[in-house]
């Protein structure tokens, strides 16, 4: 059994980790932290976990995280980088759901995240945890940087086209929409029901912190820098990301076959039949990314539709997938969740 610690158990990604790990046959939850709610039973705060998680939240200082096999950080940006070195030194493997270890260029990270990085050497060591690209490196990793939610949906949609050199890499467009749980559980005016419901808006058009992360990932698979316009939107649903991706096709090819072949062995990427238009609810609660590829009117624009649950494949589910790979478990362990309907 893997002894597991979660730092930040009261946020949406933390409780989603709890939901998935409570049903994971090889996971033994040891410690779940919260500073504000230390001492509160998990099932009191999250009644859906009653009977599944028999723990109380503990303060991080009393969590004995160094006795775990793996610690997940489901904390705001800038927390994991302060604690990871001590855990690694104690032989604990770390999976960070925040962005502390995602961007290799430290100056770029500091510019977008507005803080000084505490451990650039560990950024160099960290493996970017997108299994569909980095599976072999993840197996050996002590430290995994779990990808962001938008970056997961966007990268999985563009990767086949870039790897095959079939799209003009200088003018990619990602038009992405997220549910409000993407903003976390903390109270903020833009995600109040009366602000977000029955409305729809773009944000971060001038620049969003996921832009450098997506560019870095796409450049790695393409072998050269890419040009990307990324526009996120807030949409009045709770879970889900829908990314509509556009590119200019460079040469004729069977794009449907390309996508089907690229993801043929990927359990968590489902390439839909030609003509499909995936809905976010078709992946709700599951670790799936469902993708459809279109070439409207046979023209030179390729349109890829990519949907994920931001809290699962976009966060906690992908983190559990990475844990399974790191510890040599079947990748689907604990993740065979059928999407919720309706
Ligand atoms: N929501 C989403 O869809 C996605 C989120 N992420 C990332 O995952 C991380 C967590 O997100 P989310 O669950 O939404 O966040 P929340 O803001 O909802 O939760 C944050 C959690 O971290 C704890 N925490 C806050 N500050 C500290 C600290 N200094 N030390 C220890 N614990 C702390 C909080 O508990 P307490 O203050 O009581 O200690 C709380 O449990 C973020 O970095 C986010 O960017 C990634 C992908 C998708
Ligand atoms: C709807 C919404 O606000 N989404 C968040 C992104 C999700 C997130 O938490 O960012 P990471 O994936 O980097 O952790 C935002 O745009 O800031």
TrEMBL record:
GO terms for molecular function: N-acetyl-gamma-glutamyl-phosphate reductase activity; NAD binding; NADP+ binding. CDD domains: AGPR_1_C, AGPR_1_N. It holds the Pfam family Semialdhyde_dh. It is found in: Cytoplasm. Its EC number is 1.2.1.38. It comes from the Bacteria. PROSITE patterns: ARGC. GO terms for cellular component: cytoplasm. Signal peptide: none annotated. Its main location: cytoplasm. Keywords: Amino-acid biosynthesis, Arginine biosynthesis, Cytoplasm, NADP, Oxidoreductase. NCBIfam families: argC. Catalyzes the NADPH-dependent reduction of N-acetyl-5-glutamyl phosphate to yield N-acetyl-L-glutamate 5-semialdehyde. HAMAP family: ArgC_type1. Belongs to the NAGSA dehydrogenase family. Type 1 subfamily. This is N-acetyl-gamma-glutamyl-phosphate reductase. It comes from Sideroxydans lithotrophicus (strain ES-1). The gene is argC.
């Amino acid at each position: 059994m893997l002894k597991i610690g979660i730092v930040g158990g009261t946020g949406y990604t933390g409780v989603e980790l709890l939901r998935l790990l409570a049903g994971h046959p090889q996971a033994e939850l040891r410690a779940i932290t919260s500073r504000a709610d230390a001492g509160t039973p998990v099932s009191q705060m999250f009644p859906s976990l009653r009977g599944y998680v028999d723990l109380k939240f503990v303060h991080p200082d009393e969590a004995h995280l160094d006795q775990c096999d793996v610690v997940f950080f489901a904390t705001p940006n800038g927390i994991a980088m302060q604690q990871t070195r001590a855990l690694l030194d104690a032989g604990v493997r770390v999976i960070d759901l925040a962005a502390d270890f995602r961007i290799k260029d430290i100056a770029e990270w500091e510019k977008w995240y507005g803080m000084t990085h505490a451990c650039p050497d560990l950024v160099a060591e960290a493996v970017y945890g997108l299994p569909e690209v980095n599976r072999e490196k993840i197996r050996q990793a002590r430290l995994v940087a779990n990808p962001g939610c938008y970056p997961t949906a966007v990268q999985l949609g563009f990767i086949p086209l870039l790897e095959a050199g079939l799209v003009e890499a200088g003018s990619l467009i990602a038009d992405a929409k997220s549910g409000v749980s993407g903003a976390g559980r903390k109270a903020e005016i833009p995600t109040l029901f009366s602000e977000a419901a029955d409305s729809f808006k773009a944000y971060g058009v001038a620049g969003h912190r996921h832009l450098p992360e997506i560019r870095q990932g796409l450049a790695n698979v393409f072998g050269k820098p890419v040009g990307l316009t990324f526009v996120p939107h807030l949409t009045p649903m709770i879970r889900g990301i829908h990314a509509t991706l556009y590119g200019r096709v460079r040469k004729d090819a069977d794009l449907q076959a390309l996508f089907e072949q690229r993801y043929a062995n990927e359990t968590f990427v489902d390439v839909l039949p030609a003509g499909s238009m995936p809905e976010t609810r078709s992946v709700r609660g599951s670790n799936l990314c469902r993708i459809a590829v279109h070439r409207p009117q046979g023209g030179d624009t390729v349109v890829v539709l990519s949907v994920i649950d931001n809290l699962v494949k976009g966060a906690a589910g992908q983190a559990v997938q990475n844990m399974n790979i790191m510890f040599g478990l079947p990748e689907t362990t604990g993740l065979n969740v059928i999407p919720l309907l309706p």
